Amino acid sequence: MEPMNLFSVPEFILLGFSSQPGMQLLLFAVFLAIYLAILFENSLIFVLIRIDSHLHMPMYFFLANLSFLDISYTTITVPQMLLHLLSKEKNISYIGCIIQMYIFLSLGITECILYAVMAYDRYVAICHPLHYTLIMSRSVCVKMAASSWVGGFFFAMVHTGITMRLPYCGPNEIKHFFCEVPAILKLACADTRVTEVVVFVMGVILLMTPVFLILVSYVFILVALRISAAEGRLKAFSTCTAHITMVTLFCGAAVFMYMHPASSYSPERDKYFSFFYNVVCALLNPLIYSLRNKDVKGALVKLMGKK
Ligand SMILES: *[C@@H]1O[C@H](CO)[C@@H](O)[C@H](O)[C@H]1NC(C)=O
């Protein structure tokens, strides 16, 4: 008889980076340093935007959301990974695994939608500067931010649901550093083809739509910049290219991760992709989106001047 009980596997084991046994301590030190840097940078941005009234504008509220997201989704995965690097016990309960998968997916999808919202915000600011405060009113911004969060948590529920609907009865070693859908699907003891198609289609909708909207916004921005005065153009252009680079890195790695068939899933390679959009993006986001910004820099200088 096929065991169809959801709880037939009481726990999973996260192998993480244990295939390099001699490197555990080095990896621990490097990842810890990166994690602390992520916490520091993102909290700094978050606090600056909260306390400085010059930064009470839509763009900065979205950036505060982004920093909050970056802190949250790295905290869902990295501390556990650090613990597992030091300990022999690398298990996670079935329920723990579902919760981790769900929260990570929710925050990841929210982040993708938020990138699109921020691209739209820049589009309005550059292409319709006179109507900016009218279009991006306080209530519109709150609605847009809320929609990203609600959308993220809703679609993640669907995604997690279809993954955990499958029976897990045999192998329980996850060759990854946290419970992520493609790595878990590998362990299902049932035909995963239908699930894979659903994951793929959701990937198209959830990743490609924001990417498409972002590209459209930036095309409009570039066209607008071409016909406006030369001064400031270079700066706006460099801001846009920085944003596009960031989005391409984050969404590109996620596209690669979620949109290739499970048969071509290689845990050894793909956990580095995962690490990339999980950790590297959270590390670079504040540098690229906020700390290059002159208002944020101004607020930082002012804060340090007070001390
Ligand atoms: C996210 O953005 C919204 C809309 O601007 C804002 O009201 C909210 O306070 C932000 N949330 C966080 C956690 O920064």
From TrEMBL:
InterPro entries per record: GPCR_Rhodpsn (IPR000276), GPCR_Rhodpsn_7TM (IPR017452), Olfact_rcpt (IPR000725)
Keyword field contains Transmembrane: yes
Any one GO molecular-function label of the UniProt entry: olfactory receptor activity
Subcellular location: Cell membrane
GO cellular component, one term: plasma membrane
Record-linked Gene3D superfamilies: Rhodopsin 7-helix transmembrane proteins
Major location category of this protein: membrane
Name of the protein: G-protein coupled receptors family 1 profile domain-containing protein
Organism: Gopherus agassizii
